[in-house]
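Practice problem 4.
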């Protein structure tokens, strides 16, 4: 593992936050992630992002049009990344950044502004290791009946029980299962254990 600190930034909050979006925000906070709510338009959360990036190397990663470049422009007056207007149809920004670029900040940090992404892929990961990358699942794993529990359908699984009783967000457990199924289905293609 790379020990990269992750902060979730919910940008463009001036458009409002839906009930479903609030569930995600609350869910991530409940399992220990820091979630910042920002808006360049009303200058909300900009100082918090400046503080987070001070003296560090950071990267803005997210879908196209979520305002990564606008946020970068807002936290440092010397950066003038090109941005597109928000679509009146989708209320989302339009894809603008074409390549990753590293910027030096006045606060001594560096930020990598990346092009928008559609999805992440798992590289060289064994399906049995996936539980280690979900902090809330990793913490509960020792409470399972079986030491090698994969948290899919095993009896006495503390993770399944926690998902069912709301101790961990259901959407996180469902995401775990989707990724697990993909890794398990591709186990012969991408990962071969030493014999």
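Answer key:
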């Amino acid at each position: 593992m790379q020990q990269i600190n992750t902060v979730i930034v919910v940008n463009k909050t001036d458009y409002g936050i839906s009930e479903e979006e609030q569930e995600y925000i609350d869910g991530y906070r409940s399992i220990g992630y820091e979630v910042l709510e920002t808006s360049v338009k009303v200058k909300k959360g900009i100082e918090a992002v400046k503080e987070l990036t001070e003296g560090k190397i950071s990267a803005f990663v997210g879908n196209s049009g979520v305002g990564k470049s606008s946020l970068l422009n807002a936290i440092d007056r010397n950066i003038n990344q090109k941005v597109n207007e928000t679509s009146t149809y989708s209320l989302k920004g339009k894809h603008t950044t074409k390549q990753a670029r590293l910027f030096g900040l006045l606060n001594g940090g560096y930020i990598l502004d990346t092009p928008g992404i559609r999805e992440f892929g798992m590289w060289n990961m064994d399906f049995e290791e996936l539980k280690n990358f979900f902090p809330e699942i990793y913490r509960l794993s020792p409470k399972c009946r079986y030491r090698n529990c994969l948290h899919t359908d095993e009896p006495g699984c503390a993770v399944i029980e926690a998902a069912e009783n709301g101790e961990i967000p259901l959407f996180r457990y469902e995401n775990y299962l989707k990724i697990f199924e993909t890794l398990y289905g591709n186990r012969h293609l991408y990962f071969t254990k030493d014999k």
